[in-house]
Amino acid sequence: MGSTQTEKEKTMSLENIKNVMQDADCIYSEQEVEAALDTMATKLDAMLENVEAPLFICIMNGGFYTASRLVSKVRLPDLQFDYLHATRYQGGMAGGDLVWESMPSIPMQDRTVVLIDDIYDEGITIKEIIASCEAQGAKKVVVSVLTRKEHDRDKANIDLDVVGLTLPDRYVFGCGMDYMNHFRQLNAIYAVKGL
């Protein structure tokens, strides 16, 4: 079961938005994020150079930023692109049960699937998504995340294939990650003051 917040509770006033942004700590600058994306693309190029038409899947909503930047940087001769939308947060700050909003339309049978997401925190969501890809016949699932939080609460123990940046155990936003449904569009990564 997902979050029980109302739409009104998920929306902050413009004044609150400005205050959060003003007080936030910049964890990674836009230049540092771009450098990490370049490194991730180079790694994926090397891993997938002999794979026929790998299927890149963006995990919405948070993965859109990383997916759009990353796919434009890879130099593979051919790939296909799709998305899925699965969430445990639904705009709130605490995760609940996984809710599948949309499944990929391109078949995964006997394909190498590259999942792209914004953050690996406890691993619950990505573990279920990997299982779904495997159940749909994916030959191999490659997991690529822009960020990984450093803490001891990992519940999935997944070996991530490509990680751009490591994060402190704080509430972060920007580069696809949100704070109460805001700030996903920012080109740098910030942490909320006090969280």
| SS strand fraction | 25-35%
Question: What strand line-up does the widest sheet have?
Answer: 4-3-2-5-6-7
What's the CATH class, please? Alpha Beta
Domain count: the total is 1
Here the CATH topology equals Rossmann fold
Query: What distance separates the N and C termini?
Result: 25 Å
Structural class from helices and strands?
A: alpha/beta
Q: Major sheet, described briefly?
A: 6 strands, mixed
Taken from the alpha-carbon principal axes, the silhouette is: globular
Radius of gyration: 17 Å
Mean pLDDT: 90
What is the percent of helical residues?
25-40%
Low-confidence stretches: 1-9
H/E topology pattern: HHEHEHEEEHEEEE
Give me the number of helical elements.
5
The number of distinct β-strands equals 9
